[in-house]
Design a protein that fits this description.
It holds the Pfam family DeoRC. This is ArsR family transcriptional regulator. GO terms for molecular function: DNA binding; DNA-binding transcription factor activity. The chain has about 250 residues and is α/β, with parallel strands linked by helices. It folds into two domains: about 55 residues, Arc Repressor Mutant, subunit A (Orthogonal Bundle), CATH 1.10.10; about 180 residues, Rossmann fold. It is built from ten helices and 16 strands. The protein has an eight-stranded mixed sheet, sandwiched between helices. It has a three-stranded antiparallel sheet with strand order 1-3-2. A three-stranded antiparallel sheet has the order 10-11-13, covered by helices on one side. Helix 2 packs across helix 3, helix 5 crosses helix 6 and helix 8 packs parallel to helix 9. The longest helix is centred in the first third of the chain and has 15 residues. The protein is elongated, with a radius of gyration of 19 Å.
């Protein structure tokens, strides 16, 4: 059995039945315990599960907006403050879904900007700010995640161009790949990248490597990464090689 197929079956077993022991997975898949252990190490590196004594448990994956909004607020605010300082009045800004983009929106009050978004919480935050031209993308509503997705969202983005895209992520791999936990969001993020003149990834320290099974883009699609802590050496090297500027708490690393 190919490793990729084993990985799919391991994740399916964990998500359907909860924690699983190495011995049980070995019997189910007909391979040695040593092979299963290697598979679990790889899947943990990819942010798809957590190894525990004798086995593994699946990571929770994409969490509802309300839960994530209460996590690492100070870190997200530090990232948002730096991102807001990059924007000049009169420019157009495309904001991705997620809680860090929402924290950035809160920094934009009183500015003269055009803000484009599929993030319903960003829309609600800026709806009454008369200095901001607000463009809400169409699409299917994902209520728990407060976002709009689907072909309507993607089609809207093909008709637009923004000076800045501020992109969120579930995780960044050592090779610089930007990941997401939800496949349905990936086409929208890719359409946003095409619509943005400058692409800025907003990623707090927990996103290295974070989680995610779906690749959004590689480092070549990014211009800047704004984070709140030093990036690990392997990821920093990959970003540097792609010419990406890494900004940490106001200090330029690359």
């Amino acid at each position: 059995m190919l490793a990729e197929r084993r990985h799919q079956l391991i994740l399916r077993a964990l998500r359907s039945g909860g924690p699983a022991a190495v011995t049980d997975l070995s019997e189910q898949l007909g391979v040695s315990p040593a092979t299963i252990r290697r598979d679990l190490v790889k899947l943990e590196e990819d942010g798809l599960l957590t190894r525990v004594h004798g086995g593994a448990v699946a990571d929770e994956g994409d969490q509802p907006f309300a839960e994530v909004a209460e996590v690492r607020v100070a870190e997200k605010d530090a990232i948002a403050a730096h991102a807001a300082a990059m924007i000049e009045d009169g420019q157009s800004v495309l904001l991705d879904i997620g809680t860090t983009a929402f924290r950035l929106a809160r920094q934009l009050h009183g500015r003269r900007l055009t803000v484009i978004t599929s993030n319903l919480v960003v829309y609600e935050e800026l709806a009454d700010d008369e200095g901001i031209e607000l463009v809400l993308l169409g699409g299917m509503v994902r209520r728990e995640y407060r976002s709009l997705v689907g072909f309507l969202t993607e089609d809207n983005l093909r008709q637009l161009h923004a000076d800045w895209l501020f992109l969120g992520t579930s995780g960044v791999r050592p090779g610089g790949q930007v990941m997401d936990t939800t496949v349905v969001e990936v086409p929208v993020k890719r359409a946003m990248i095409k619509a943005g003149e400058k692409v800025v990834l907003l990623a707090d320290a927990a996103k290295f490597p974070g989680t995610g099974m779906a690749k959004v883009c590689g480092p070549d699609d990014l211009d800047v990464v704004v984070t709140n802590a030093p990036v690990d050496a392997a990821t920093r090297s990959s970003l540097e090689e792609a010419g990406v500027e890494v900004v940490v708490a106001g200090k330029v690393q690359a």
